[in-house]
Amino acid sequence: MKTTTKMVLGAAAVMLFSSTVAGVTTYSMMKGEKENSGSFTEMFSPNPNVKLASMSATEAQPVDLTQAAELSLHAVVHIKSTQNGRDQIVRTPGDIFDYFFGDGYGRAQRVRTQPRVGIGSGVIISKDGYIVTNNHVIDKADEISVTLNDNREFKGRLIGTDPSTDLALIKIEADDLPTIPVGDSDALKVGEWVLAVGNPFNLTSTVTAGIVSAKARTLGVYNGGIESFIQTDAAINEGNSGGALVNARGELVGINSVLTSPTGSYTGYGFAIPTSIMVKVVSDLKQYGTVQRAVLGIMGHDIDDRVKDKDFGTVEGVYVADITEASAAANADIRKDDVITAIDGKKVKNMAELQEAMAKHRPGDKVKVTLLRAKKEMTVSVVLRNTQGNTKVVKNAGMDILGAAFRELPDEMKQQLRLSYGLEVTGVSKGKMADAGIRKGFIILRANGETLRTVDDLENVLREASQSPDQVLFLSGVFPSGRRGNYAVDLSQGE
Asked: Which of 139, 142, 162, 166 is catalytic?
């Protein structure tokens, strides 16, 4: 387990500020249809007894932040995630005698790994126990424990995750819980006072104050995910991940996620995921089990040195370097070399702001895109699509869609077939596996090029494949007879 994730950013280090673990498995199924989508407030029930700290954040500067802090503390929880110990097969290198008289693979030993524990924070957004946190706080955990500010402890249940935004939704069985009112992060101004509330260094109920230093920051820590961070100089450290960024009114405006520091602890800036992204993501996770991601279908970047030789008539916006075939942009007459300057009338200065604007929408939504083409401004209407190139609801394919049962390959079969890993298909009923012609006894070695050692490995590949444009699971392996097999499993689920 990596307790701290670091990436070099100039002279500073960038890290996710929680201890992380590996191992939560969730089988979430799509419920309802897109037309039944409810609003955030319809799906999550804030506590009506919560009051705001002041009527105007602008009037509150400089401000007594004690009321905002006191109200926020009760809705921020401590999260402990645990990965149980696992059995692993460790093979020692073969010696000369093993080469001539054995199988040449050396000796195999079963080793049990130690349990791993990570800590972080979370924010109660619904009085009936829905809690938002960072994906990296609970990623691959086998057990999730939630401790409230009054020291009550609950078992957490994973509802869904979105690695692209580093958000996760969990649930505890409780009622009449305190909540933080969700504010509008778009209205947040640079220079505005904010509070960071969380559990740094395993110290519960910690509040630090600072100002908003910048908005729409991109750091490159999510490996191509959606980044449009709120930057703050409020002190943030390990364990703050998933905690609340609160304005002077006591409203939630962000989920604390990343810090920059040359030392690994706070000496620089903290970064929070804005509520403009969070609201859409957690609403999708509750309703669908996965995020309904709308994409414009362009490849582009900020107006920077890469296009310094071109005169666009502006120095702000997103340069369109290419158009994805059969995408929303392609069908709306957005062209290469265009510069996108606004979405629905709201100015777009860079790629981070464009990503944030798209993250608020679902496939099928219509948006007006303002752009410059040959220095002339024009507006086009765009029907957004999903990553599969259509407007259908993307369902989260659970393991049950395969219609099969699996187990890790037993040691005796590994020795017999001279394999060091694999999943045995122990049963096949009606489902996608049967449709593909896969039978009981088949040993899966790889799925979409990924080596399979555990059932969790297959589940992770399945989740990614179900949300890919192709929606195909390519399986390769062997039968006990030694005959090899390759199968393509169609994961599409229709309307």
From this structure: 166
